[in-house]
Amino acid sequence: MPRVSVVIPLYNKAESVLASVGSVLRQSYGDVEVLVVDDGSTDSGVSVVAGIGDRRIRLIAQANAGPGAARNRGLGEAIGEYVAFLDADDEWDPELLRLAVDALDAHPECGAWVSGRAVGPERVSQEPHNRRMGLTGGAWRLPHLTPPKALKFYVDFCHSSCVVARRSLVLRYGGYYDAARSTYGEDSYLWLMFVMNHPLYLDPAPRVWFHTEYSTLGSALLGRHPIRPALTASGQLLDRCDAAYLGELNDLLAYYRLIETEKLVGQGRLAKGELETWRSRFPWRRGVGGKVALREMVVSASATLAPVTRVLARLAGPARRRRS
Asked: For 163, which DSSP code?
């Protein structure tokens, strides 16, 4: 029985999946199974994986259901004590699994091991910023009264390709959010529960290479993401949160709400009265800093002026056409 199950969701990644799977097979720690879940791909990615010919690989096929559902399908088939989820356009450093297993074996109190990453074709390391944010390595627990912007960073640090977790805990929290074929925030929904409930073992060094040039979700949809499930399905997060961290979670949800309303008002899609509805659902439970308060004021002013701006834009349209 392998100690580590590696789940790779595959959807139209023929260009990159060979490098991703290869980075798992080249690990210095070899007690693994590799579950590649084809989520209804229409390119040659499945043939690429089938051609590798390694007995540790299992190909699993399903109709297209989204990244969360694909990872959960792999989770359901996994048998390892530890489980990792590598995206089909990312690569691992050869020592990643050995470092993760050694750390988790030595620190049974930690729910998961999480590493830093390098981003893009230039492999830009995020380690300097990780260290500026206080992630110096080793066992770590979320400090109480962490400001919401910093808390968002800590949750985002737990990117799926960078996490090796205890499979029993991933199962306890129900795996990834997979309702309505969610394509955004389905991963942070899961790792947020880890941050709120368990110590983690953090390694700020870039053990993962993010190939953003192949991304069709995430950074490729910047500014056009759907509403994150942490807001649309917040009840489960609140129910499962360590009671000692409910204040931090509520403020993080309020911060997510602020980001969402900033996006909507900027796109002219915030309906009349909708801002107050959002704020009543996700209020600040504690005081907010000056910068966050200023952002709330800007959203209020923009929402108030939006109807006037739309009217002026409609009036200006005929005038511009006449001048042209």
From this structure: E
